[in-house]
């Protein structure tokens, strides 16, 4: 898998932001919201933002390489875009959050939201955590148990509307 990340070296004049993301760590039993260091190409709102996931991941000596995957989620008429950063190596710890049954995921993962108007990472909002959980579990199902599988660079997922919304629509349309 080709790494499509751009690196900006830190200087005294490089603007930096800390953006909210969803972290799936091997050291925790639940996912949590974390802040990731992000370097910017300028000071304007439209400046490109380049995340530094190395600031969140453990065990850089075992696996220094970080993969990334862009994910598009379609939910009804809404389209959301995210980016997953993850480490995957046989010598990393098992991630209990992303493992299922006999298929284990070894390593950490982070999900960040990509903006609509500016194709760069942005802060995650309230409902984005639920979408990130949906994305990461579908992603883990796809790559778990396949140590030599080619990792996806782009992924499109279709999320069904929640039952609460669907029941409202059904009631509005007069369907039982």
Q: Which helices and strands appear, and what pairs or packs with what?
A:
Layout: E1 16-24, E2 32-40, E3 49-51, E4 67-75, E5 78-86, E6 109-114, E7 121-122, H1 128-143, E8 154-158, H2 163-173
Parallel strand pairs: 4-8
Antiparallel strand pairs: 1-2, 1-6, 2-3, 4-5, 5-6, 6-7
Can you put this structure into words, describing what you see?
It is a single chain. The protein is of the alpha+beta class and 176 residues long. It has one domain (16-173). Helices cover 15% and strands 30% of the residues. It contains two helices and eight strands, in the order βββββββαβα. The chain has helices at residues 128-143, 163-173; strands at residues 16-24, 32-40, 49-51, 67-75, 78-86, 109-114, 121-122, 154-158. Strands 1, 2, 3, 4, 5, 6, 7 and 8 form an eight-stranded mixed beta sheet that branches.
Throw out a few tags for this protein.
2 helices, 8-stranded mixed beta sheet, single chain, 176 residues, globular, alpha+beta
How would you summarize what this structure contains?
With 176 residues, the protein is of the alpha+beta class. It has helices at 128-143, 163-173; strands at residues 16-24, 32-40, 49-51, 67-75, 78-86, 109-114, 121-122, 154-158.
């Amino acid at each position: 898998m080709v790494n499509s990340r751009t690196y900006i070296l830190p200087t005294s004049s490089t603007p930096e932001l800390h953006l909210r993301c969803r972290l799936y760590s091997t050291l925790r039993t639940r996912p949590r919201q974390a802040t990731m260091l992000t370097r910017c190409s300028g000071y304007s709102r439209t400046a490109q933002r380049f995340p530094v996931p190395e600031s969140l991941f453990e065990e850089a000596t075992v696996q220094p390489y970080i993969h990334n995957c862009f994910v598009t989620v379609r939910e009804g008429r809404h389209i959301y875009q995210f980016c997953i950063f993850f480490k995957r190596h046989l010598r990393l710890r098992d991630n209990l959050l992303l493992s299922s049954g006999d298929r284990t995921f070894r390593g950490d993962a982070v999900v960040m939201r990509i903006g609509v108007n500016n194709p760069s990472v942005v802060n995650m909002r309230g409902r984005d955590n639920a979408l990130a959980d949906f994305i990461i579990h579908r992603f883990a199902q796809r790559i778990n148990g396949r140590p030599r599988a080619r990792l996806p660079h782009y992924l499109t997922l279709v999320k069904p509307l929640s039952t609460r919304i669907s029941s409202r629509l059904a009631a509005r349309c007069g369907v039982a």
